[in-house]
Amino acid sequence: MSETFSAEVRYTGITLGYQIGSALFSGTAPMIALALVAAFSGSWIPVAIYMAAVCAISFVAAYLSKHVAITEDHVEDHA
């Protein structure tokens, strides 16, 4: 993942993606699970299906992410 970003923005790029993902999915997961349990009369099966779907999306995203190796040869000298 670190090779996706250049050295100047590497920390910001990785951290920003991590924090936004955590806020959107980890922060809302309990509310979604509670809504699913309430909507399906206390059944936990929709929550398990939701969790499996989120895991599947994560695996697909990780598989399809581009791995770009940034080498020193590609860095332009602006001096």
What structural class do the secondary elements suggest?
mainly alpha
Count of individual beta strands? 0
Strand content: under 5%
Outline: elongated
Largest sheet data: none
| Helicity, as a percent range | 55-70%
Order of helices and strands: HHH
Number of separate domains? 1
Give the rounded overall mean pLDDT.
79
Helical run tally = 3
Please give the alpha-carbon distance between the first and last residues: 29 Å
**Low-confidence spans: pLDDT under 50, at least 5 residues?**
68-73
Q: Indicate the radius of gyration in whole angstroms.
A: 19 Å
Short note summarizing the structure:
The chain is an all-alpha fold and 79 residues long. It has helices spanning 10-26, 29-39, 45-64.
Tell me what the structure shows:
- With 79 residues, the chain is mainly α.
- The chain has one domain.
- It has 3 helices and no strands.
- The protein has helices at 10-26, 29-39, 45-64.
- Helix 2 (29-39) runs antiparallel to helix 3.
- The longest helix has 20 residues, at 45-64.
- Residues 68-73 have low confidence and may be disordered.
Key traits:
79 residues; mainly alpha; 61% helix
Can you lay out the helices and strands and say which pair or pack?
Elements: H1 10-26, H2 29-39, H3 45-64
